[in-house]
Here is the input.
Amino acid sequence: MSASTLKIFAIASFGIAILATLTVFIISKNEPVLEPVIEPEITVPETKPFVSSSTIGVSVEGRNIEMYSFGDGEESILFVGGIHGGYEWNSIVLAYDMIDQFSSDESLVPEGITVRIIPNLNPDGLAIVTNKTGRIFESDIPDPSNRVAAGRFNANNVDLNRNFACKWAPESTWRGEVVSAGTQAFSEPEAQALKNVVENISPKAVIFWHSQANNVYASECENGVLPETLDIMSIYAQAGGYGEVPVFDAYPITGDAEGWLASLGIPAITVELGSYQSTEWNQNLAGVKSILNKYGK
Here is the structure.
């Protein structure tokens, strides 16, 4: 191949390359520009657990006071056991049995309601009798003749159900006996723990489990019994087969928790079991369900 031929071939190749480049440029210029694909950010909504527990305070001797919550409704119904510790420890067993029931059956909690249970407001009083802390069972309940009256009080020998701000006095009575009510209303850490809970959750109603009188009692302070208190007293008593006592007048009481709640406009009742040994489970489950039916949506 001559030199002139090679020169012509090189020029032709160069022209073809330029033409190809221009063609690609023109084609690519006319193609739509594709935006990068951005994957949407996926977020999982935060949900509250159905069952939760918290420590709401500590006793005089440093034992934890626990509260269990079920559901996530805006309105709270509060149940309290063990305010009189080991002296009424079937009220503690009943509270723990209720905790088990709600933990296993979410359908018991109506829409819009959170059920809250303090199983034992007086853990030191329980320890005085049983040397146990935390969960106890019905099989732990002793013969009534072996019960120790000291287990009714906290480690400061204060009757906690005389330490609240309703007609409080430094001394009160229990079945005709003088009992200490503390140095002032809410002087005891256990009473303070309940006060803090009530202030935080503003319950629609509060139910206390005690023993033994086989009745449901309404509460009042300075202004008489709230109409709604009478309502829930009757609802629980009729469902559970207990007697109804609108006004407690067996002996003078000052500084009781139920009366303090009444002074705040919160309906509160005292469910006195019929013995010191049994939880009267079926009766109280029926009573609890009847209260929740009243307040549920």
Observations:
- Strands lie at 51-58, 64-70, 75-80, 113-118, 171-174, 177-180, 205-211, 215-217, 243-245, 268-273.
- Residues 51-295 form a domain with the Aminopeptidase fold (CATH 3.40.630.10).
- Helices lie at 3-30, 89-104, 123-130, 189-201, 227-240, 257-263, 281-295.
